[in-house]
Amino acid sequence: MEILIISGLSGGGKSKAASFLEDMGFYIVDNMPAAMILKFAEFCAGGNGRYDRVALVYDVRTASSFTELFGVLDKLKTMESACRMLFLEASPETIIKRYKETRRLHPLREQTDSLEQAVLRERELMQPVRDRADYIIDTSRTSTAQLRGELLRLFGKAGEKVGMSVSITSFGFKHGLPMEADLVLDVRFLPNPFYVEQLRNLTGLDSAVSDYVFSFQQTRDFLAKLEELLSFTLPLYAAEGRAMLVIAVGCTGGHHRSVALTHALAEFIRGLGYPTSENHRDMTRGG
To answer: Which of 84, 110, 198, 273 lies at 20 to 30 Å from 243 by C-alpha?
Structure first.
């Protein structure tokens, strides 16, 4: 079992780190008191592998006794588990700027006369925890993508690569847009197999329909331009730190053209090295 304690300064990036670690397969528990960590670890150890990777967020909100935390860490290290602690921090100026942008209340704000004092006081209080950390990441000048990459480097499984998953789905405009779509492609301008009687009851996954759709030069040209666009934009989306990009391809009913184009694009995107899921929302839908 792998146990990771996520600690650090408020505004240092703990929430983002926890989200990325969750994407990497960690089971996340936020705001857990030190007194409960050992019992929770014992519970996870008996979970038949369900909780093999656990990340527990511990910060100034629960820091009633660092002595208690350090005692728990020492006990965890004697168990049959890998126990490490990650500490995230940023410069006082960066943290103050982040709090001003989000307008959230610092955990120690009501105990001090200003946000600056709260930030400096927390830094002082959390120093013993920082001293015990196995890893320290300063996020002052770290982009979201860089943080994700560093976490993957430190805690990713062997062979796991930094990457973005792509979900591409076909749909029919008559049934509404997919709410989760990041990019929407409209292929209603392409020749419609619906008007070919022998193709009407087939779908874009049938070779007869696909062959018909791609028999037209405008379809082949359109696909080539889409491939060029995606080759350029997908690495930029990934560099931004996205874990998932959803592409929706729509035609009128979602049975023919959008399905054929979605299938072709999914194969192309897989060829670029991105984990890709292919879905056809309205392909079997009547009307």
So the answer is: 84
- Domain with 213, as residue range(s), is 165-280
The total number of structural domains that make up the chain: 2
pLDDT at 149: 81
In a domain, residue 175? The reply is yes
pLDDT at 65: 67
How far apart are alpha carbons 197 and 247 in whole angstroms? 30
Q: What is the pLDDT of residue 259?
A: 98
287 within some domain: no
User: Can you give the pLDDT at residue 28?
Assistant: 93
- pLDDT < 70: residue spans in the chain: 47-49, 62-65, 80-81, 158-163, 287
